[in-house]
Design goal:
299 residues; alpha+beta; Rossmann fold; Tumour Suppressor Smad4; eleven-stranded antiparallel sheet; four-stranded parallel sheet
């Protein structure tokens, strides 16, 4: 099998990849490795690899790397997409966790040997970019409005020498004590909602934000998104709820809503960003749609 590996160039596990994982892959497969060197590089690499007729693209990084790889593959507009493999070397790895994928060379090589990738859904977002032009993006795990993108934007302001874990901790603490519920309008073909929200998320996977399980029963190949809405929940209460969510517990509160949908229209009277897989995608208003069985993943 011809495999193109896109390795997050700043991953702290890069040494282990070259020492223990790559040799096992090379023993059975024709592997080409490219490290990311700058923001958006994984997108470019995946787009080029899709046109070069590789059998498989291996995303070796976290959710952000996977998001860029996915967008690069689908934006290539190639009639035959390579299959997708995931080696979770990031700090969060939420989508990989939802699929039961681990940082395990034996699991990875076993999945490749079986060569039976599973058709998996993808989310499509049409929203505004920073200049107001409409743009189209894709996501694999979770897209959200509210505290999620606020945390991502705060992380982007912090120096990278702090490392991803410390930057995330500092960003989320800042967000918790400064973010206020924002105006939000959600419309689907079967239900709608308007009000103040702390978080609204559409889940193809089960968790985001490093194992915050907003949709513990979600399946990424059922053609539907599970949604999670926290409206104007008091801050202290929401902090307590986060610990329950990390334990995969559903919340029983009139200000917390669980729902499902396939097509969404999201808008706000405020200038709100939307993130997906830990990456800012653009700004509201946005349309979000499930694309059933869009990619095949070794899982």
């Amino acid at each position: 099998m011809k495999i193109f590996v896109i390795l997050n160039g700043v991953s702290r596990k890069k040494g282990k990849f070259y020492r223990a994982i790559l040799p096992a892959l090379q023993a059975k497969h024709d592997c080409t490795v490219a490290e990311t060197r700058y923001s958006g590089h994984a997108f470019q690499l995946a787009q080029e690899a899709t046109h070069q007729n590789f059998d498989c693209i291996l995303s070796a990084g976290g959710d952000g790397t996977l998001n860029q790889v996915l967008n690069g593959m689908l934006s290539a507009n190639h009639p035959h997409l390579p299959h997708l493999a995931i080696l979770p070397l990031g700090s969060g790895n939420d989508f990989a966790g939802s699929c039961g994928l681990k940082e395990d060379v034996h699991q990875l090589t076993s999945l490749l040997d079986k060569n039976a990738p599973i058709a998996t859904d993808v989310g499509k977002i049409i929203c505004g970019d920073s200049s107001g032009e409409r743009t189209q993006k894709y996501f694999m795990n979770v897209a959200s409005v509210g505290m999620g993108p606020t945390t991502v934007l705060q992380m982007e302001k912090l120096p990278r020498w702090l490392g991803s874990d410390l930057r995330y901790l500092a960003a989320i603490l800042h967000t918790f004590f400064t973010h206020r519920p924002t105006d939000l309008s959600i419309k689907t073909d079967s239900w709608s909602w308007n009000g103040k929200a702390r978080v609204w998320a559409m889940a193809n996977g089960q968790s985001f934000g490093n194992r915050i399980y907003i949709a513990p029963q979600s399946k990424s190949n059922d053609g539907i998104f599970d949604t999670f809405l926290a409206s104007d929940v008091p801050l202290l209460t929401f902090l307590i709820y986060l610990q329950k969510l990390k334990g995969k517990r559903k919340l029983a509160d009139s200000k917390i809503q669980y729902n499902q949908g396939r097509d969404f229209e999201i808008s706000s009277s405020q200038n709100l960003a939307i993130e997906a897989d830990g990456e800012i995608q653009g700004y509201l208003p946005a349309q979000i749609t499930v694309l059933p069985d869009r990619v095949k993943i070794y899982r």
